[in-house]
Amino acid sequence: MSRITLPFLLTLVVAIITSCGDAPVTRDAQTDEHGAAHGPEVTLTAEQVKAIGLVFGSPTQQNLSTGLKANGRLVLPPQNMADVSVLMGGLVKQVMVQEGEAISQGQTLALLENLDFLQLQQDYLATKATLTLQRAEWERQQALATDKINATRTLQQAQADLDGTEARYSTMEQKLRLFGTDPAKLTPANIRSAYPVQAPIGGFIKRITVNTGQYADPNKALFSIVDNRYLHVDLTVFEQDVHKVKEGQRVTISDAHDPGVLHSATIFGVNRAFENDQQAVLVHARITDKTHDLLPGMFVQAIIAIDSTAALSLPNEAIVNNGDDHFIYVEHQPNVFAQLQVRIGTSELGFTEIIPMSPLAADARVVVKGAYYLLSELTKGTGEHDH
Prior knowledge:
23% helix; Elongation Factor Tu (Ef-tu), domain 3; elongated; four-stranded antiparallel beta sheet; conserved putative lor/sdh protein from methanococcus maripaludis s2 fold; six-stranded antiparallel barrel; 39% strand; alpha+beta; CATH 2.40.50.100
């Protein structure tokens, strides 16, 4: 698709406006009714103002920060990523989730069948029954020893048998819990061949590497899970700027592929050692606004707020430039717009500091949308202007 240039768009707008009525009237620098001088002006009709879509605003005091630019990457801390594997292999009976699905901690992801799991349940129930008998026997031998009827060795053997069985019983309990089975609820009637593979954290399923009927190897991750709620950005700050960065500073980040979308973050940590092969440290910033647009691994651009001062500011779109000069347009009479030269300072979050070169009233009606059309009218025949 061919690229539409700004001059073409402005020519098209001029054609539309001209068709709405009289052509705009431009005049050189003037003196208003109070004797104050102002720059050249453009006079439009009400219909032309509406057709162009001019939007007005007034200068405001904004806390704008001088910023340190840095590049970085979105990452997750280790505790918010999980690769799910199994302690004991088995055949996949059922996969119960899909990639991209939101899950909660402890949710069953798949069911695996294994004969050793069946044997473990059988051994646990048999050990539980044996333990009941040995406790009764130990209590009987203890009573006989109290009455000096049996030998001390007999009581000691009963104690040793009981201790060994209790150890095996406790170990089997822990094994069953590792396989997602509650030992207290296990009975001969509900022994099962399949055990659940459960999610260790909540989040989203990133990857599934098994399918129904496949043998799940204990050495292979079956599922990958990410919890993007704790996403943060690692920024690279070079040696000469490290002293400017500290915890608590605000950071504005944008996707490297979509710079117009901004997100806020706050620095929570600064590494105390240089990265390998470069004189730079990683600075960690936690993202404060929640969004589904940011994903682990994305590259971002960032501005770290170093200091902040209140400054007279306008939206970026209100300020236009012609060569090295910057201008705004003020409605000093109905539908009459005077050009006012300004110097610009810090820009942040869609606002830019302005320093007017001539007086500007606090309640001035400044064109904040459509200023480039007015500039085009005043620069006809004088060469192209710049963004």
